[in-house]
Amino acid sequence: MSMPVANLTYDAAIVGLGPVGAVFANLLAKAGLRVAVVERVADIYDKPRAITLDHEALRVLQAIGLGDFLEQAIAPHNGSHYLGVDGEIIKIFDPMPPPFPLGWIPNVTFVQPDLEQALRNKLAEYPRVDVLLAAAGVALQQDDDAVTLTVRRESGEQLPIRARYLIGCDGANSFVRKQLDIGLDDLAFDEWWMVVDTLTSDPAKRPAKSFQYCWPSRPGTIVPGPRNLRRWEIKLLPGEDPEAAGAPDNVVRLLNGFTDISDLTIWRSAVYRFHALLGQRWRDRRVLLMGDAVHQTPPFLGQGLCAGIRDAVNLAWKLRLVLRGDAGETLLDSYEIERKPHVRAVVASAKEFGKIIGELDPEAAAERDLRLRAELKAGKAETIRQRFIPDLVSGLIARDAVLAGRLFVQPHVRAPDGRTCRLDDLLKPEFAIATTAAAPMAWLSDVASWQGLSGERVVITTSGESSDADGILSVVERDGLFADWMRQHGAAAVIVRPDRYVFGAAGNADELNRLVGELREGLGAAPSSIPATSVTS
Asked: What are phi and psi of 369, to 5 degrees?
């Protein structure tokens, strides 16, 4: 990993090496692409930001090669209790019970600087990645073939970086977004909150569960992090000065309103303006935006960073297929088509929970408590957090097919070498056909065409032997997760995208071969167009 070269045309240039940019860079680097990364600051950001990840994000980090790191870096998120004005429970989020559908605990906590360091360490392993720190973009031009980014270093020296595509992962104040003159739609949420990370000397002192203090006098949240990390998020009230609120004595005063702080050391704190914003456009020809550069969500569903990681894994494989000639350039339009409505739905849920927590009117809060308590008692309240995360509803999916747009399950399987691992560890980041037995795999009529797409074939059974022969991987799963999932949906074969969303599932040979044909059309390598049957807005 070295400094960008001025006379070289990269496959991709990435502006921003925060966690989303680092995930995206790793995904491209692992695929063998030539990547340049530019980051404005020299060091990893040291203020409290994300603290939660979900199983979809963990699966992407696993794909990058951070599975072993995650095993020792994360802690289970044990659910949330929302407490009403009287201090009693009004709403509950419980952890999803096992077996876990994506092979990871569905919700976890983590320490962001540790993850960012692990991402940078992994990126440093790739010789085709060049990174320039402490440098800022100052100009951006694109032509029919490439994008030229002009970068200024701290010394004042300017450097041109040319790439086939450029991706802005440069946060809420994105230089790239401003250069493209892309506006943000305001989704009507704007509040000031203080975020305080503390380290406890007595980890057993508080329950290992999140609490949302839905108190009009001062709304707040506690999230237990890994090891001895405890986070508080505290709402600032109307008339309070955000700048003065961050003073150390005021941080202590506000914390004292929620807990005895005798065991706590304040590690770091910051005051943030929580927004709900959505970019009007996500692509301008050869330039695309992702993460906070194109969407910002309140943190009340723990999905801010998860959304950016979804952007990264959605775009990475599409860019790779376009660059190697297996897909037409219009495939890149499906990035916004798929991700924008997904983000909009997640933001809507986060806003809803933010309004529950942050209600400042005592009468409205009392009414809220009565309503939510009644829903909880009647069994009408959804208590599993992940069920608020939608599937894909448009884009490169066979919308009329079973399971289209759903996330593909990830069972633990016995590999041909005898070890037990998560399924994705045995697969390349390509399309895959997965079946419940050997017979449905024989339905595929044009094996050569599938191999030409670098598509994989995997048979997942509940008994027998694991093997890897004749281009077909056969594995035995541990918990019957895949078998139950396929049986529940009446499917025998499923086509899975490289980002592990389902293109569509089939119950017979005709359905499978029709889906494969539809997929090839949708990729649009020749002619370069995406039919309405496959990519829809």
From this structure: -60, -45
235/494 Cα distance (integer angstroms): 46
Q: Provide the pLDDT for residue 525.
A: 57
CA dist list (Å): 38 to 5, 134, 160, 311: 12, 8, 11, 19
Nearest-CA neighbor of 152 among 168, 139, 165? 139
pLDDT digits (tens, 9 = 90+) for 85-125: 999 999 999 888 899 999 999 999 999 999 999 999 999 99
Estimate to the nearest angstrom the gap between the alpha carbon of 169 and the chain centroid.
13
Write the pLDDT tens digit of every residue in 7-18.
789 999 999 999
Asked if residues 332 and 314 have their Cβ atoms less than 8 Å apart, the reply is no
512/503 Cα distance (integer angstroms): 11
| Sign of the dihedral through C-alpha 411, 27, 345, 535 | negative
**Residue the block writes with tokens 């942050």:** 358
Band of residue 527 on the pLDDT scale cut at 50, 70, 90: very low
Report d(CA 406, CA 397) in Å as an integer.
10
Share of the chain above pLDDT 70, in %: 96
* Separation between Cα atoms, residue 177 and residue 443, nearest integer Å: 47
pLDDT given at position 1: 53
End-to-end Cα distance, the chain: 39
d(CA 128, CA 263): 47
pLDDT of residue 537: 39
pTM comes to 0.95
What's the one-letter identity of residue 454? S
Structure-derived torsion over alpha carbons of residues 103, 109, 110, 116, reported in degrees to the nearest 10? 70
Residue 532 has phi, psi (to 5 degrees) of -65, -25
Question: What token pair was written down for 412?
Answer: 């633990």
- Give the tens place of pLDDT for each residue, 52-73: 999 999 999 999 999 999 999 9
CB-based contacts of 478-485 (< 8 A; 24+ apart in sequence):
478/411, 478/412, 478/413, 478/414, 478/420, 479/99, 479/411, 479/412, 481/99, 481/101, 481/409, 481/411, 482/409, 482/411, 482/434, 482/436, 483/436, 485/101, 485/409
Record the tokens describing residue 45, joined without a space.
Answer: 């950001």
Q: Is 231 exposed, middle or buried (0-12, 13-18, 19+ CB in 10 A)?
A: buried
Exposure string for 72-89, b = 16+ CB within 10 A, e = fewer? ebbbebbbbbbbbbeeee
β-strands 210-213, 220-224 pairing:
antiparallel
pLDDT of res. 95:
86
Q: Are strands 35-38 and 129-132 parallel, antiparallel or unpaired?
A: parallel
Q: By 3-state DSSP, what share of the chain in percent is helix, strand and coil, each rounded to 5?
A: 30, 30, 40
Looking at the DSSP bridge assignments, the partners of residue 235 are 193
**AA identity, residue 458:** V
